[in-house]
UniProtKB/TrEMBL annotation:
Protein origin, superkingdom: Bacteria
Location of region: Disordered: 1-21
Organism of origin: Naasia aerilata
Keywords: Pyridoxal phosphate
Name of the featured protein: Aspartate aminotransferase family protein
UniProt xrefs under CDD domains: OAT_like
Family: Belongs to the class-III pyridoxal-phosphate-dependent aminotransferase family.
Pfam families: Aminotran_3
UniProt key word Transmembrane: no
PANTHER family recorded: AMINOTRANSFERASE, AMINOTRANSFERASE CLASS-III
Length: 321
């Protein structure tokens, strides 16, 4: 370090480091789902540290990380034990594909997940994140029906407003038109049914003479589930491969399912030979109170997609190393 550098007070060094970061962000960082012009005009908060549910930015301001880094860091920030285990793994073996080979962490995690998963769900296919998990489940559903000798079953049904990721196939399942219009045409085969926001039930077309209360909510749940049956019949059961649903539908406001909804959906899927995929990219690993949220709501899906809190952000989700 030179004498001139030593003479600079610490806070001015910090502010020039901050300015440097802001400039680099402005010049090179393309942010996700963000208005780039805001970054360019006002700069961006730079988060540098976390402890439990608190995070700090580069200016020392603290925040409550209420979304857990977008539903990822369920175990909280700053857990030394997790960091040490990740470091040990990196020292031992950085990466290896699960392609004709395996390694202990992939085998053990698959075993653990199979143990935690409900019913007979006992095979784990690792991918790199939630969108790719949804994409993979879509592909698996199509291939499953091909292997069953029913190759025309390829369409997928999901709820309007629901978010299921941004790869081209997952976008076919995501029910938010504004997130897709730039990339149209996306993978064909995605069909939408009304979402289960009870407070918008009238707008969705639900009509009831039952008094406001639990009975009416249950009736709405059955009504919403029956829209899935209607769509299967409209498109033709021989063309529908799977229904993708989040246990608690996050996008638009976090809607828990109305009572009876998933039980009726399960019945419908069984009746028409359609796979039920529980998209638990947000809801798994304790967020709803159980390892898998389908357990909370009492239904058994044919596939579960999960990611995020599986590693709590302490390592990339695919144990491919
Ligand atoms: N599915 C659901 C229900 C999600 O909430 C998300 C992301 O928030 C995804 C899929 C996509 O996951 P990722 O961002 O890891 O690709």
């Amino acid at each position: 370090m030179t004498i001139t550098e030593q003479a600079v007070p610490a806070d001015s060094t910090a502010s020039s480091a901050e300015q440097d970061l802001q400039q680099k962000a402005k010049d090179h960082l393309w942010m996700h789902f963000s208005r780039q012009s805001v970054l360019e005009e006002h700069g961006v908060p730079v988060i540098v540290r976390g402890e439990g549910h608190t995070i700090w930015d580069s200016k020392g301001k603290s925040y409550l990380d209420g979304l857990s880094g977008l539903f990822v860091v369920n175990a909280g920030h700053g857990r030394r034990r997790l960091a040490e285990v990740a470091a040990k793994q990196a020292e031992q073996l950085a990466f290896f594909p699960i392609w004709s080979y395996a390694h202990p962490s992939a085998i053990e995690l698959a075993d653990k997940l199979a143990d935690l998963a409900p019913g007979d769900l006992n095979r784990v296919f690792f991918s790199t994140g939630g969108g790719e998990a949804v994409e993979t489940a879509f592909k698996l559903a199509k291939y499953y029906w091909k292997l069953q000798g029913r190759p025309t079953k390829h369409k997928v049904i999901s709820r309007a407003v629901a978010y299921h990721g941004t790869p081209q196939g997952a976008l076919a399942i995501t029910g938010i038109p504004a997130m897709k219009e730039m990339f149209e045409p996306v993978t064909p085969g995605g069909f939408r049914v009304p979402n289960t926001n009870y407070y918008r039930s009238a707008e969705l077309g639900f009509v009831s003479s039952t008094q406001e209360g639990p009975e009416r909510e249950r009736e709405f749940g059955l009504w919403a589930a029956n829209r899935i049956e209607e769509m299967i019949l409209f498109e033709g059961p021989e063309t529908v491969a799977a229904v993708f649903l989040e246990p608690v539908q996050n996008s638009g406001g976090c809607f828990p399912p109305p009572a009876g909804y998933f039980q009726r959906v399960r019945e419908i899927c069984d009746k028409y030979d359609v796979l039920l995929v529980s998209d638990e990219v947000i809801c798994a690993f304790g967020r709803i109170g159980n390892w898998f949220a389908c357990d909370t709501y009492g239904y058994l899906p044919d596939m579960i997609t999960c990611a995020k809190a599986m590693t709590s952000g302490y390592s990339p989700s695919a144990p491919r190393s």
